[in-house]
Specification:
Layout lengths: L1 H20 L2 E7 L14 E7 L16 E3 L14 E3 L2 E2 L2 E9 L13 E5 L6 E5 L4 E2 L3 E9 L3 H9 L4 E3 L2
Antiparallel strand pairs: 1-2, 3-4, 5-6, 6-10, 7-8, 7-11, 8-10, 9-10
Length: 170
């Protein structure tokens, strides 16, 4: 009797594990390598039906990601985690972009929200911006949000994507 009960419990456990792991979800997967700071387009992602492990979060394919900014580098074929997306939102002619630069390319110890900054790249004139999100540094890189004129946003995003951006405080 005990053996039969153990067999039934084991079978129930296998069915439960199979049920949990067979629930496929349609999520976004990167179609190409994406660098931090890039403004995302529909061509950057494809929908894929995947099994996600317990505790793994992914952006559902039903949610639009075009116009968001990549906060991390993403390899081709990677499932898109929600924390890798930043919002590029227009506000009174300004666009808020997430910026990721190598440590030492931004004076994070003196940068505060609402401070003016100059954004410098290898070409063109310096672009003025306003720190819109508290800078965070992890030892190898610095991340913060900046508000710039909408006409300057593509240039700043390109400098971030190319890892050529330098931030200065006037």
């Amino acid at each position: 009797m005990v053996g039969l009960l153990c067999l039934a419990m084991g079978a129930a456990g296998l069915v439960a594990a199979w049920w949990r792991n067979s629930a496929r979800q349609d999520v976004w997967v990167t179609a190409r390598a994406i660098t931090a700071g890039r403004v995302l387009t529909p061509d950057d992602f494809v929908a894929a039906s995947v099994n996600l492990g317990t505790g793994v979060a992914a952006v559902p394919a039903s949610r639009s990601v075009a116009g968001f900014v990549a906060l991390d580098d993403l390899a081709p074929g990677a499932v898109l985690p929600p924390e890798a997306l930043g919002r590029a939102s227009g506000l009174a002619g300004l666009v808020r972009l997430s910026v990721v630069v190598e440590a030492g390319r931004a004076p994070v110890d003196v940068m505060r929200v609402d401070d003016a900054v100059w954004l410098l790249g290898p070409t063109g004139q310096p672009i003025s911006g306003i720190v819109a999100g508290a800078p965070q540094q992890d030892g190898t890189s610095c991340r913060f949000d900046v508000a710039v004129a909408s006409s300057d946003a593509p240039q700043v995003a390109r400098w971030v994507a190319d890892a050529t951006l330098i931030v200065a405080v006037p």
